[in-house]
Design a protein that fits this description.
The structure is a single chain. This protein is of the alpha/beta class and about 475 residues long. Helix content is about 20%, strand content about 30%. It is built from 10 helices and 22 strands. It has helices spanning about 5-15, 160-165, 210-215, 310-320, 345-355, 365-385, 405-410, 410-420, 445-455, 465-475, and strands spanning about 35-40, 60-75, 75-85, 95, 100-105, 120, 140-145, 150-155, 170-175, 185-195, 205, 220-225, 235-240, 245-255, 260-265, 270, 285, 290-295, 305-310, 320-325, 420-425, 430-435. The relative contact order is 0.09. It binds copper (II) ion. Copper (II) ion binds near residues 115, 156, 158 and 169.
Length: about 475
């Protein structure tokens, strides 16, 4: 029995030697009148707000203006966003622990709705929401002391709260510890959020908010930085081999938890939930709705590294993909390029990106524009199985190149894309007996464009297929079984 206290003491000592759980010292009192006053420097996504570089507290003035604006949600798809400052996410704010933050919220007179702001960095009722309830054409103000270091989500909390967040009203505020964060070479600001449009993913036109889908947590879009493709192609995040990259990753929600992952990278440091204590050697970090994380890594080899929510249908079917393009010398000892299989995503995504870079706006209905859009769909999806040159794989995937089966019957080809195909088929004299999944999640335009593309590429020549043809076949197809939702 006497051994027990000894054992406990030994355990305690071991704990002290290993992980420390020291809390930062309490903050000294302030005399607001003596504080220097500084205007906050904000970060517009994907740029993070710069470090404060201060060693003493200040009174930081933050000015945010709410704007209700129609913006592109995807190419050819518009949505009425409610925003802090005109963009989704709102600007990143950065202050230092101990600062006094004077927050001004202006609601533009052209807006239709009242709005407010709840900052998770605030200690006080509603995080500021009740003090900042602001009608259109008004402005409000309140002041809070940044007591805890960390990276915090802010969002609008006006009823219906989920709708205000879902429409784009969220952002991040970083509260640096007194000593600042360790310096890095590049800092980026990325926020995930869902959009509950009435129409399906990439269905063109101005899309209204769909409350039933929001309640069912069934978004058409899950995107980074407010838009399908916000970090793709020309908008990819640049970096160089050997640079330390820090991503401030926030999740506005309103509903879904993110499994943040960078394909081909390992986070060597993560501050889970953007708290004080780092973790190391992490593949995927969970970021709750209304939460954030800091992820850091040093790309060792060049290439395109794909940011995803690893709930992976969100990435490839709802928009939750971004890209980090790393330039610099190869290091074959770390990654030997020659061993890549052609269909490996790392190789394919580079070609797919090339095609995506050149995608013209959907309004443009020239054959050339349709072919370019069709190519993007082909590269992004069909080529996974039918191969980059549509040559297929003997006895597994039939070719689309010079395929007699494809060219014989346009209606049948629409049916195959919408409904999939299984059982024995004979293409150019060879039989195949495999399964193609239905790809009905593509819009009528996308299916018409990709079929027009394959019917006029790889040695094929045939009449284009119109979106109306696809719509007609879709209308005749049996409806999918209803899901478990009421
Ligand atoms: Cu609002």
């Amino acid at each position: 029995m006497r051994a027990l206290p000894l054992l406990l003491a030994a355990l305690l000592a071991a704990c002290r030697a290993g992980v420390s759980d020291e809390r930062p010292r309490p903050l000294a009192d302030l005399d607001p009148a003596k504080l220097p006053v500084v205007e906050a420097t904000l970060g517009q996504a994907p740029e993070a707000a710069p470090p404060t570089k201060r060693t003493a507290p200040a009174k930081v003035v933050v000015k945010l203006e709410v704007r209700e604006v129609v913006k592109d949600l995807a190419d050819g798809v518009q949505y009425t966003f409610w925003t802090f400052g005109g963009n989704v996410p709102g600007p990143m704010i950065r202050v230092r622990r101990g600062d006094l933050v004077e927050l001004h919220l202006a609601n533009h007179p052209n807006n239709a709705m009242p709005h407010n702001i709840d900052l998770h960095a605030v200690t006080g009722p509603g995080g500021g929401a009740s003090s900042t309830f602001t009608a259109p054409g008004h402005q409000t103000q309140f002041t809070f002391r940044a007591l805890n270091a960390g990276v915090y989500v802010y969002h609008c909390a006006t009823a219906p709260v989920g709708m205000h967040i879902g429409n784009g009203m969220y952002g991040l505020i970083a509260v640096e510890p007194e000593a600042g964060l360790p310096p890095v070479d590049r800092e980026y600001y990325v926020m995930q959020g869902e959009v509950y449009t009435h129409g399906a993913f990439r269905e063109p036109g101005l899309q209204p908010f769909d409350m039933a889908r929001a309640i069912h947590e069934d978004p058409a879009y899950v995107v980074f930085n407010g838009r399908d493709g916000a970090l793709i192609g020309d908008r990819a995040l640049p970096a160089n081999v050997g640079e330390r990259v820090r991503v401030f990753f926030g999740n506005g929600g309103p509903n879904l938890v993110s499994s943040f992952h960078v394909i081909g990278e390992i986070f060597d440091t993560v501050y889970p939930e953007a708290g004080a204590r780092p973790n190391h050697d992490v593949q995927t970090t969970l970021v709750p709705a209304g939460g954030a994380a800091i992820a850091e890594f040093v790309p060792e080899v060049p290439g395109t590294f794909v940011l995803v929510d690893h709930s992976i249908f969100r990435a490839f079917n709802k928009g939750a993909v971004g890209m980090l393009k790393v330039a610099g010398p190869e290091n074959k000892l770390i990654y030997s390029g020659q061993e890549i299989d052609e269909v490996y995503l790392g190789e394919r995504s580079a070609k797919a990106t090339e095609a995506l870079d050149k995608v013209p706006a959907p309004e443009s209905d020239t054959l050339e524009a349709r072919m370019a859009r069709g190519k993007a769909v082909f590269m992004g999806t069909c080529s996974t199985c039918h191969q980059l040159e549509a040559q297929g794989i003997p006895s597994v995937f039939p070719p689309l190149a010079k395929s007699d089966f494809l060219m014989a019957d346009p209606r049948r080809s629409i049916h195959i894309v919408l409904g999939g195909l299984q059982g024995e088929v004979t293409v150019n004299g060879q039989t195949y007996n495999n399964v193609m999944p239905p790809l009905a999640n593509f819009t009528d335009h996308e299916i018409a464009d990709v079929l027009t593309y394959v019917r006029n590429s790889f040695g094929n020549q045939g009449a284009p297929i119109a979106p109306e043809d696809v719509a007609a076949v879709r209308a005749e197809m049996p409806k999918p079984a209803p899901t478990g939702h009421p």
